[in-house]
Amino acid sequence: TTAATTAAAATGAAKTLSDLGALSSGNGFHARIYGALAAIARGSRAGTLKPEIVEQPLVSFVPEVAQSLRNSSSESFSENVVRLQMLGSTLAVAEATAAASSVQAAGGPGSASQGSLMDRLAGSWCRALQDKDLSPQQFLLQEPLHSARSALLSLTASPEQQLRFSTSLAASARSSGQPHRALGWLDQAQRDLRKTESAVVQRGDVLRLYWERAQCLWEINEQREALAIAKAVTSEAVRQGRAPVRSNSGLLSAQGSSQKNWVGRALSLTGMWLAESRLEDTEVVRRSYFEPALNCDDTDPLPRRQFADFLDEQLAAEVVRQKSVEHSLARDLHDVTQADLKNVRSDLQQFEIQVRARQRDPKDPEFLALRDQERKLMKQCQEDKEKFEEEGKRIRDLAYSCIEQCGKCLQLSGGKGLTKVACRFLSLWFDYSGDCPEITEVVQKCIPTLAPFPMTPFIYQLASRLDTPDKASTGAWKFQQTLEALLVHVISRSAHGLWPLLQLRNGDQIPHGMRNASLHVADQGKIAASERVMTQLRSKQGMASILEAAEVLSKFYINLAFRPIDKKNREGNFDLRQIQGYENVKALLKTSSTVLLPTGPPQTEGNSRLVGIKHFQESFSVAAQGISAPKIITVQDVTGREHKQVVKGLDDLRQDAVIQQLFRLLNDVFADTAKSRQADLRIRPFQVVPLTPCAGIAEWVSGTVTLGQLLTGNTKPEEGAHWIYRRQDWSHGKCRNTMASAREMANQQAHGAEPLRKALEECYDNFKPVMHLVFLEKFASPERWHRARRDYARSIAVSSIVGYIVGIGDRHPNNVLFDQTTGELVHIDFGITFDQGKALRIPELVPFRLSRDIVDGLGCLGTCGQFRGLSETTMEVLRASSSLITAVVEVFVHDPVYFWSMSWSRKVRQDGGVAGEGPDQASGNTRSNRLGRSGSAAPVGQSAAAASPSAQSGGENANRGPRKADDGNEMAKRAVLAVKGKLCGAHGTATALNVSAHVGCIIHEAIDINNLSKMFYGWSPWL
């Protein structure tokens, strides 16, 4: 569509200019551009420029370039678009210069007219530079256009406009990851500046030039020089008491800042640099940079965000210091001092008794010495107490100030880039509201004006904290009331948040057919709290009908999920009208337009439109695989688009939903980080909507096929790539039988690993990888092949490192999808996460799937090429976003998944009995083959030191806002600790590994034949 539109516009332009006459074709495009520039230069000097002199050499190229857009690749398309823009820019300048010449010839102020036209033109070019976030490749592609425009401005525009454009161009280059090119443009601007009289150029433009140089120098690690320039620029800007640039100049920051806005951002960023380099005391940085930055423009969220980051770093450093060995020793010494004081006072009491009985002299030196010792110990204890109170107050003050600034950022702007801010806002509230109730008051004040969409991704984190505390607990009720108000505020503006709320409300809907259903303990406190929130939502305008429709739809989906199916007879279609509740849904669709599509795209700041359901196809099928017999249905939305959904019963999808939430949040982080934008890092998510602890809906991933189907054909081996390309090799089934026999042999021998290794080596010798041939067949053109291989490597790198961090296991070939259009890999089915695979009867020893066929698709360099670099970049970004990942994982501490929430002792306590020895299912020793999910054994009822239900909570912990030790479960807490350790570089070594060593270590583990041979043969390690 874009090509057709551009071509049509270009053809129209050619027709308009056709009367100027055809020209002989002999010179190339750039030669014609040069000729046009020369003509503009001569005409500008003479003041008699005729537009046809410039236009005629360029006209013939317009239809030629437009025609080339029709059937061109993406790269050549972009190059031709840049050429059209170069032609348009040259023609626009020619027209402006010619118009000024005409005015001057008529006796008018020609130079003033030209200046006005060029000011507008240069301003639009500057704004075009600032409105785009370009990757390095995109910037390099557009650089010829910018060079042409710079040349045009040097011929026709004022020195002031030339300086502004060069500075804006340098800023664009820097933000695109090209700081050295930016410095080149700045050097050119400074050379031009030295040729210009200082009175012609505003001092503010010069300051902006030097400020851009400081940012570029910081990017290339020339920190001292950058700080020297930044301090000088900000000092002069503040001293002058005015903006370095005019607000209408075109020389604006990326957000179109006003003059105060610019100074504020410069001050806050300089403060960040000083804090990072430790060249100034933190109090000086706060007083001299951040506070003046906030005073410059209190409506700009960026300085507040940077100030919040500064406070957050101070808070983290203070927490680390107070958890250090030295601080623990100081507290131990304080305890010893208190014990000594207690002993001295006891001795003094004995002395006083003896003195009153006149058995001892009150002037006894020993008595006086004890008095003196008591005084010294009391003084020491008092000093220690004041010191510890001051430390506690410091942490509370930092947390309070940080959440206050985060809240104001979320109030001032609902734009992009606020994912981390929203995450930290909630984390601070959850972590410190118990010790500092004032923090809850800050959150409460922010709610009415809080931007809802940055909070939407954290609905699961918010909903998992819902509870019904003891009535005597004022602090806990205050926390819950604020939490409920925040949920109402967010969900009333983003209705997709209803689904986690409904899932909590349905927390007691466990069918009898679910394994260990008798051990599951529903959290009645959460159920009651979710009902309270839903009651408040019904009173909001427009929400009552949406909520009612969601409840009707939820009941229908649950009935469909639990519909029994003969697993031996899955073929054919089934009648959807036989499902209880379908008629209610059908009647609702006829009368309501607010039936929310569960797997539709979530609402965002730029797209707040709800996607509703129009109708269901009245038949459904059953997946060929899956022990829970997933049902596949088709839904059409109100726009006419069809959506396939997988409805699962007897399967907890809450874990899958939170993993998908993590993927979406990480995509926001990747988009917000320059290095990951440069590498085009992203991970492909899909919608998962849990409805009960044992039922839910997942979005069908279109255009994909499982790796198992692609490579082996599954039940039809003749359709698999291995059969097609290498029929002389062993079959997949023979490899499986060989490894199964080796497993039986290994179980019978004392040294069981050797038969497994030999068997896998034999499979390697007789079963060669073919993934490179798949790419040659499916992506026939060189361009498509190269793009697919690049996307393939990127998807493997990101999914592998993310999967390692959160411990995603069970990556057998049917849990990995291959996109036949893009070459990407898409992971599905996250039933085994947080390293649960290590606890299986046959433990998983590899951190992610990097088997031979996977590596074969990476090309001749294998794991040492592009994959390695992308993996290291991903690890760097994840480490920098550790707080975000931890916040997502912590949802399981407060809303444990089904198998974590089972506890025999907890069940007995709820029933009023005494916990004794439970059945085997509660001991954590039982395993069952969940072939539909994993093809391997999976843990069922692992015991956990689960706390009593929230309805019974009270006592000391009842006053705390967020639920802590008495409510999570041991398994979830261990999962959080494991994730934190990996993000810090812990990997079984005495010291933390750096990024390169960490990535190298886990890649080696993933391809090590000793590890692969010990995997369960259903994992297909030879594939």
Mean pLDDT: 81
Task: Name the structural class.
Answer: mainly alpha
The N- to C-terminal Cα distance equals: 42 Å
pLDDT < 50 runs, ≥5 residues = 1-26, 242-257, 904-910, 913-968
Please give the oligomerization state of what you see.
Answer: single chain
Largest sheet: 7 strands, antiparallel
Overall 3D form: globular
Q: What portion of the residues fall into strands of 2 or more residues?
A: under 5%
| Strands, count | 12
The residue fraction in helices comes out at: 55-70%
Q: What's the gyration radius in Å?
A: 34 Å
Helix run count: 40
Care to describe what's here?
- It contains 40 helices and twelve strands.
- The strands form three sheets. Strands 1, 2, 3, 4, 5, 6 and 7 form a seven-stranded antiparallel β-sheet that branches. It has a three-stranded antiparallel β-sheet with strand order 8-9-10.
- Helix 11 (223-240) runs antiparallel to helix 12 and helix 25 (654-672) packs antiparallel against helix 35.
- The protein starts with a helix and ends in an 11-residue tail after the last helix.
- Mean pLDDT is 81; it is low at 1-26, 242-257, 904-910 and 913-968.
